[in-house]
Amino acid sequence: MEKSIGLYIHVPFCKSKCYYCDFNSFSNKSELVEAYFEALKKEIIIYGERAEGYEVKTVFIGGGTPSSVDSRYIEDVVRLCRQHFKIAADAEISLESNPGTLSEDKLRAYKYIGINRLSIGLQAWQNRLLKNIGRVHSIEEFVDNYKLAREIGFNNINIDMIFSLPHQTLEDWAETVNNVADLGPEHISCYSLKIEENTVFWEKYEHGEIDEIDDHTDREMYYLAKRQLAGHGYGMYEISNFALEGYECKHNLIYWKAKEYLGLGAGAHSYFNKKRYNNLYNIEDYIKNYMEYEGKYIEGEAIIDEAESMSEYIILGMRLTCGISQSEFKGRYGIEIMDKFGGKFKKLIGKGLVEHKAGRLLLTQTGLDYANQVFMEFIDID
Ligand code: SF4
Q1: Among 86, 101, 110, 183, which residue's Cβ finds the most Cβ atoms within 10 Å?
Q2: Cα 12 to ligand 1 centre (Å)
Q3: How far apart are CA 96 and CA 91, in angstroms?
């Protein structure tokens, strides 16, 4: 049987850097765009050969802001992927975008080349909050872009939103959730803000200019999202992700189900042939590596042995509200999960964090709030 794989393509350019963002993305390197895509094309050709015998089920063009560059670069990338990989006829092909970088021409070009899932970063419905977090767009631009995407025929749209932002009230968050749900996108992601090092927010936090929202309010916001989105017909299928039935993100499910994927572009991570590794993070180094050295340098290479593979499978799979299937575990590893990890699971079930239901092990409602505590149990198992 042909093996399947997901393809992630990283575009590390943004119009400006958001205050909370620690991704491998830059707003001051536009002079490298042309050279970057040349290197990316080389990488596509090289990995197209290595992935012979695989069928690509999903392509995810993320970043950064892929919509910030001229659409001809995206068109070239998709076209080249089709030439060098075997892309499934029904593949999910997603592109991440941000309001303020989209236009009718770009959206039409994306549609024409077969992008069938559009992800739009909104984050908050209030212009004052958007400004406070360093976003370059207004809510009005978001609504215009969203409507335009619908008119052009995108029928699978995700909206990203963030809660626990500095100065965000519960009412602000309720307005964001309800207004987005009223628009009716097929998929909604709700992330809780974490103030990360090397961000503008980290500096502000260190200087006492902003505070983290307290845990109680953070949880209230999460519960509110779960309640309101359920009321609008969205099913929560992962800790932070909600979808109308049948619109769960197939690409992200590859990660959560610990299946194989290739990450192309600066810093992109791969899990391929039982190895995890990533490309060089620095854009200039990445370009040089592919233009001069045929991509021979990679970073963080680790062979995933059976114990690590089980650990990842459980930690990633427990993020899904359906949890992990005992029979799938047995099919994959040839042993019963309860024979190997019965002690740990019994302890977590006893604490009310995990439940055993219809041949599956999954987080309880309380477990969703203490997911890290559950995951810790499965780190470094042997
Ligand atoms: S647009 Fe996205 S990737 Fe770019 S800086 Fe903002 S959050 Fe980071």
Answers
A1: 110
A2: 9
A3: 16
Give the pLDDT confidence score for residue 2 in this predicted structure: 75
Do the beta carbons of residue 31 and residue 248 sit within 8 Å? no
Give me the residues of the chain with pLDDT under 50, please: none
Q: What is the pLDDT of residues 115-170, one digit of tens each?
A: 999 999 999 999 999 999 999 999 999 999 999 999 999 999 999 999 999 999 99
pTM attached to this predicted model: 0.96
pLDDT in tens, 41-60: 999 999 999 999 999 999 99
Q: Residue 250: which region, alpha, beta or left (left: phi > 0; alpha: psi -120 to 50)? A: alpha
8 A C-beta contact, residue 37 and residue 70: no
| 342 in the same domain as 204 | no
Average pLDDT, the chain: 97
Assigned token pair, 361: 């092990």
Which of 11, 13, 14, 26 to mutate to test ligand 1, by most ligand atoms within 8 A of the CB atom?
A: 14
Burial label, 292 (beta-carbon count in 10 A; 0-12, 13-18, 19+) = exposed
- What amino acid occupies position 372? N
* 28 contacts: CB under 8 Å, gap ≥ 6: none
Q: What domain range is 119 assigned to?
A: 3-256
Q: Are residues 350 and 234 in the same domain?
A: no
Quick one: 237 and 372 in the same domain?
Answer: no
* Residue located nearest, by CA, to atom 8 of ligand 1: 21
CATH of the domain at 196: 3.20.20.70
The full length of the chain comes to 382
Q: How far is CA 283 from the centre of its chain?
A: 21
Ligand 1 cavity residues, CB under 6 Å: 14, 17-18, 21, 23, 25, 63-65, 98, 121
What sign results for the dihedral spanned by CA atoms 307, 309, 312, 317?
A: negative
Number of domains the chain is built from: 2
In angstroms, rounded to a whole number, what is the distance separating the alpha carbons of residues 116 and 109? Answer: 12
Q: Output the pLDDT for position 161.
A: 98
Distance 130 CA to ligand 1 centre (A): 12
